[in-house]
């Protein structure tokens, strides 16, 4: 059977103070997951039946502004992640981090080094870069040189929403930014790529949207007609087609209702397994994993086969392993 590949699995470097973040964003990382280590992930992976995890930094890291420090931080992470993969070659892969993509020459140089030298499995991008009115979404023209190189290579891109605060406070301590805002940021980034024509233009890039695309399946039909009405040159049917061409991971989103929605909307074979560990506990990750298993009970290898094909450098085992 194909390996179970977790495409949404974070790495928390020691320099990242997750505890300090909890108050500002309204979400608490499980204490038992801090400090993070590869061994901690391996224990969780074994408990959840995960063979391989593709590691990535949380969205928005390394932090800006663009410049030498940002470039240095991206390189240091990529070397660290590559070293983990070297120590555990059968268990980990990684999505490379890039300098802020508007620093286009540096970003292209780093993705070249990460993919060609460090053998990264793809590249991680955030939904937007910068803060407040200065923020730009991932389809911005200033990022075109990076997308062009990603498209030339047919790269896998893991696209995750940033923890961007709303214009109003989050409504309740139980409804912090990672719960309510991050999924919408993922949708907004995907919609930006679609209506600007960038998703169609860079169609050779295989983009995985975190958390089943957030609110995408609900809002895509709204975008299709209303954005066309507002001047988007793509026809509503073309907009919906481009939305459906993304890949979608199940992390913290898998339920019969959401899985049936994305399976009816996305192109066949475009759903992937994810956990979001160590941002959540093993028990939380198991809840969603069990939902995946329940939904795909008649097709237990469906998501695994998709991931094995997407990451073609990862071997597929036979039933004897």
TrEMBL record:
Any one Gene Ontology biological process term?
secondary metabolic process
CDD domains, per this entry?
A: metallo-dependent_hydrolases
Q: Which molecular function term from Gene Ontology is one that the record holds?
A: hydrolase activity
Q: Which domain of life is it from?
A: Eukaryota
Q: Where does the UniProt annotation place the signal sequence?
A: none
Query: Which Pfam families would you find in this protein's record?
Result: Amidohydro_2
Amidohydrolase-related domain spans which residues? Answer: 5-312
Q: Which InterPro entries match?
A: ACMSD (IPR032465), Amidohydro-rel (IPR006680), Metal_Hydrolase (IPR032466)
The protein here is known as Amidohydrolase 2
Query: Gene3D superfamilies from the entry?
Result: Metal-dependent hydrolases (3.20.20.140)
Which family would the database say this protein is a member of? Belongs to the metallo-dependent hydrolases superfamily.
What UniProt keywords apply to this chain's record, in alphabetical order?
Decarboxylase, Hydrolase, Lyase
For this record, the Gene Ontology CC terms, alphabetical, are: cytoplasm
């Amino acid at each position: 059977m194909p390996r179970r590949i977790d495409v949404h699995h974070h790495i928390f470097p020691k320099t990242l103070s997750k505890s300090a973040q909890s108050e500002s964003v309204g979400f608490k990382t499980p204490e038992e997951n801090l400090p993070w280590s590869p061994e901690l992930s391996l224990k969780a992976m074994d408990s959840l039946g995960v063979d391989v995890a593709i590691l990535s930094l949380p969205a928005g890291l390394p932090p800006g502004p663009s410049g030498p420090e940002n470039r240095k931080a991206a390189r240091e992470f990529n070397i660290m992640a590559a070293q983990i993969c070297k120590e555990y070659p059968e268990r980990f892969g990684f999505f490379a981090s890039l300098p802020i993509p508007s620093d286009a020459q540096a970003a292209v140089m780093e993705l070249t080094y990460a993919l060609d030298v460090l053998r990264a499995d793809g590249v991680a991008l955030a939904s937007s870069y910068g803060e407040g009115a200065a923020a730009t979404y991932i389809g911005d023209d200033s990022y075109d040189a990076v997308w062009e190189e990603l498209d030339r290579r047919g790269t896998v891109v893991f696209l995750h929403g940033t923890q961007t605060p709303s214009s109003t406070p989050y409504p309740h301590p139980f409804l912090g930014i990672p719960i309510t805002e991050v999924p919408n940021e993922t949708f907004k980034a995907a919609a930006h790529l679609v209506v600007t024509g960038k998703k169609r233009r860079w169609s050779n890039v295989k983009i995985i949207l975190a958390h089943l695309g957030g609110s995408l399946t609900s809002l895509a039909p709204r975008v299709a007609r209303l954005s066309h009405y507002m001047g988007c040159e793509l026809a509503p049917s073309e907009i919906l087609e481009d939305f459906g061409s993304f890949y979608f991971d199940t992390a913290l989103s898998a339920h019969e209702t959401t899985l049936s929605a994305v399976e009816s909307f996305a192109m066949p074979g475009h759903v992937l397994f994810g956990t979001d560990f160590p941002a959540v506990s093993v028990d939380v990750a198991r809840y969603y994993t069990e939902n995946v298993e329940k939904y795909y009970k008649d097709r237990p290898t469906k998501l695994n086969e998709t991931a094995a094909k997407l990451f073609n450098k990862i071997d597929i085992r036979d039933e004897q392993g």
